[in-house]
Task: inverse folding
């Protein structure tokens, strides 16, 4: 990419929440160019869940931008720090994970990140390879580089301390070990979500103490989930997984609000802010329909993580299932368990829970009362279903979820 330092700076900082400090980044870019060396860009991922979602790709896309300019990105898997459990943004301690859980999740991360990153320009590192080698004396020396008073400045620690919620001593090690990662990797830049700002800043100070130039800190916004309120999270069930089937991914994008759509365009596509503002103006003036613009967003996201042909198929399925109300071709198929049958009847609420169309019996009961349950295209309001007079194959629908059940 032939461009000036200023053009590169604008490209790299687009969509970032904060850069500490911007002038340092410019100077580091200039120095790297003179020295003909790539910058080392570190991003840590604690493998706390087996799948990556679109919220993770906000920083992954920014890592790819650094790769586009010839820099080296380090995808750091925190299999060592994951044993501590990072409490960032939480009122209580996040439970430490077992080694087996971490290893399993780390393997899926390695496969998924290359949906975004260039494998030829990516270093995958595991921080256990150096953290586990630290002896007791090494750990004491590392702890001596930071004070308890500074650690308690971190917002979540401060709130927990004031409210009387327990803080375990091992939690203080998290920002210190994350900072030590930067020392080992000689990071020029470390990126993370805005909730990681404190940890990233500790890295700057520890690097100074070890005689290194302090890393530039770059934070990315936290992407809101499908609810438009909480940050995207698998535990909150408001996420879009990057390994999800194309049709499901497409449908989930179409669920977001029109207002949130612009945020997704900004953080999940390469459209400029000017182009995104132009889309907003055209919608407000009636030149474009929000549905059309959202469908283009869904098409872009599915294409990025699958292919253009899969995106077209997903759009066709969305039109058939959601817009036309027809049953999808890829419905899961179940057989009614004998344990749910009694006197040729089945409790519908228990069946809906059993096959996963509802998360609980109470949700199933509510959906039945609301008239949101259909069997073979007809609303079903009764708590039971007579299997003697029913078809041998039933198509069940709850909202946008479908399943085929055989008797």
Result:
């Amino acid at each position: 990419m032939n461009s000036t330092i200023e053009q590169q700076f604008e490209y790299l900082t687009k969509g970032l929440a904060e850069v500490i400090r911007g002038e340092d980044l410019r100077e580091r870019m200039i120095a790297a160019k003179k020295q003909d060396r790539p910058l080392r860009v570190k991003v840590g991922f604690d493998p706390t869940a087996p799948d990556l979602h679109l919220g993770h790709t906000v920083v992954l896309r920014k890592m790819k931008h650094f790769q586009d300019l010839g820099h080296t990105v380090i995808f750091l898997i925190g299999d060592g720090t994951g044993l501590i459990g990072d409490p960032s943004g939480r009122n209580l301690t996040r439970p430490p994970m077992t080694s087996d859980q971490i290893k399993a999740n780390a393997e899926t991360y390695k496969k998924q990140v290359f949906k975004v990153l260039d494998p030829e320009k990516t270093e995958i590192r595991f921080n256990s390879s150096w953290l586990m080698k630290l002896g007791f004396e090494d750990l004491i020396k590392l702890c001596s580089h930071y004070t308890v008073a500074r650690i308690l400045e971190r917002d979540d620690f401060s709130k927990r301390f004031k409210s009387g919620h327990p803080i375990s001593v091992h939690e203080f090690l998290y920002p210190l070990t994350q900072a030590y990662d930067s020392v080992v990797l000689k990071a020029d830049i470390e990126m993370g979500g805005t909730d990681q700002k404190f940890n990233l800043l500790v890295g700057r100070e520890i690097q100074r103490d070890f005689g290194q130039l302090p890393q530039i800190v770059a934070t990315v916004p936290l992407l809101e989930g499908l609810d438009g309120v909480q940050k995207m999270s698998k535990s909150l069930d408001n996420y879009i997984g990057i390994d999800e089937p194309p049709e499901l991914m497409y449908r989930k994008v179409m669920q977001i609000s029109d207002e949130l759509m612009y945020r997704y365009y900004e953080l999940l596509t390469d459209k400029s802010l000017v182009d995104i503002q132009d889309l907003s103006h055209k919608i407000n003036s009636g030149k474009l329909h929000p549905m059309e613009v959202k469908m283009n967003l869904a098409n872009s996201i599915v294409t990025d993580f699958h292919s253009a042909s899969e995106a077209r198929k997903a759009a066709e399925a969305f039109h058939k299932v959601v817009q036309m109300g027809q049953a999808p071709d890829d419905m899961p198929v179940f057989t009614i368990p004998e344990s749910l049958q009694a006197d040729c009847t089945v409790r519908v609420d228990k069946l809906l829970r059993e096959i996963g169309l509802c998360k609980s019996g109470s949700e199933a009961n509510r959906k039945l009362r609301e008239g949101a349950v259909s069997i073979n295209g007809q609303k079903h309001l009764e708590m039971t279903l007579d299997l003697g007079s029913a078809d041998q194959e039933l198509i069940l629908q709850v909202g946008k979820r479908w399943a085929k059940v055989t008797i």
